[in-house]
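Reopening this one. Same input as before:
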Amino acid sequence: MGKQEKKPSKIEQAAEDLLNYAIDREDVKWLMANLAEQADVKRTTVEYELPILKIISVGWSLSYFLPGGPQKDELSSLYWTAINDFSKDLSSTTEMMTGQKIDYFDILKERLDMYVNVLEQHPDVQDPATVIGPEFARTCGKADDIFTFMIGSKMFMSTVGHVKEYLETIKLR
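Same output, byte for byte:
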């Protein structure tokens, strides 16, 4: 008799879906293809920072959109555990290719703390993207470049919007 696989719970499936969305690079590719030529920034830096912003924006959205309680805690825990596992694999691969040891999850935690701190410094802001965009540009080394500001804002708004829509679709929000 064949062994029957256990169907994931709604929360487990949501965590998997959100992980897959967070690490998908299609929107990163689109944003990079549409980054204005006039942008005064190292494109490799932007291309490195965009996926980081996307991953942490998904996690931030869970805290922002879900009401407190066991579902929020479980989904957040499953999501960040999956991101941690993904980060370990990425860190190992990077180390094998470059010979340099990195901790990608630590980088994600540092960026998340950075973005949360800057949001906390602006508690009255109506649209978090107006704070995230400039911080993204600063992180990319060009705080005054409007094109870098806008690409960070676009990534954040798009990601947050998609997560909100997803949570509403699966009736977690």
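So the earlier flakiness isn't reproducible anymore. For the record, Residues 10-29+40-169 form one domain.
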